[in-house]
Amino acid sequence: MRFNLNKEGEDKMFGFFKKNKNNKEVVVYALASGDIVPITQVNDPVFAGKMMGDGFAILPTSGVITSPVKGEIVNVFPTLHAVGIKTPEGLEVLVHMGIDTVELKGAPFQTTVTVGQKVDENTVLSTVDLEALNEAGKDTAMMVLFTNMDKLDTFSIATEGSVDGKSEVGKVTMKP
Question: Which entry of 81, 96, 138, 166 is annotated as an active-site residue?
Answer without folding.
Answer: 96
